[in-house]
Amino acid sequence: MAGGAQPLLCGIELGGTKCVCLLGTPEGEIRTQVSVPTGRDPDDTLRRIEGILRGWSVAHGAFAAIGVASFGPLELRRGSANYGRIGATPKEGWTDVDVAGFFNRRFEGRLGLTTDVIGAALAEARWGAARGLTDFAYVTVGTGVGVGLIAAGRPVAGWHHPELGHVRVQRLPGDSWPGACPFHGDCVEGLASGPAIEARSGAAAGTLPADSPVWDLVAHALAQLAHTLVLATAPQRILIGGGVVSAQPHLLARIREGLRLSLNGYLRIEEVAGGLDGYVVLPGLGVRAGPLGALAVAADAYAAAPGPTPPESA
């Protein structure tokens, strides 16, 4: 990624487990990176992030833009009185937190805001496995299950951003476990997220062996999600990442096979991507997709907003 004199951007990925702060450039160059835990006290977490940003601004100069990519649900309608607030999230203590207001009140300049999965999708379009695509889906499987949808080169949004991690899916015969989602029980997130896997198996997802029977159940739920994506939005590619999949890469082949069986020859995906191996893939940016998503949001905010020429980095 290109170096040289570039405007300084700050990206903040607010995740369910940790928050990643990046200082970088519109070309995707990361100058420095710091992580803090996402605690139950949002004020404490956000003030720790504020301290990091203020330290960077003293050491490196003012930011051309700040990009925030946050877990949701998140109000993204700029005309709404609740713009930038987190909705009814399973993350304890964070419902109704005014994310946009916190940063707008403390930092001057351009602020970009979107969900963490949409941000990751934007990063994959700029620098990763979705370059050159106009229609694709980015799925993250970690603390939750989220989907960032891009159609005609833009994030999909109606009165709210899509929440496809909470769709209910066909269960495997004999699987009657109620699920772990506090809102919907056995939605995809309630069956396949990290907390759901731990609640069902009694062990953290990253520690389970590849031959654990729980993976058949997880892969089935995620294949059903992929089935829904294919039939609803016909993406050119589906990227599946997040902490669970990065720790258990064998899941990808299981998801592909589950999708093949579920579609049952109805659509010819091989004509789109040369087969399922090129259609359902890992993110090109790996675990960096989320943090770089926040930087991509900052880059978009910098490019879109008018104003005086910002300071450049050395």
Outline type = globular
Number of domain units: 2
CATH architecture of the largest domain: 2-Layer Sandwich
- The gyration radius over C-alpha positions equals 19 Å
Helical run tally? 11
CATH third-level topology of the largest domain: Nucleotidyltransferase, domain 5
Sketch the major β-sheet: 5 strands, mixed
- The order of strands across the largest sheet is 3-2-1-4-5
| CATH class division of the largest domain | Alpha Beta
Can you give the helix content as a percent range?
25-40%
Q: What is the N-to-C succession of helices and strands?
A: EEEHEHEHEEEHHHEHHHHEH
- Return residue spans where pLDDT drops below 50 for at least 5 consecutive residues: 308-314
Terminal Cα span: 16 Å
Number of strands: 10
What is the name of the CATH superfamily of the largest domain?
Answer: ATPase, nucleotide binding domain
Q: What structural class is derived from the secondary structure elements?
A: alpha/beta
> What's the average pLDDT?
92
How much of the sequence lies in strands comes to 15-25%
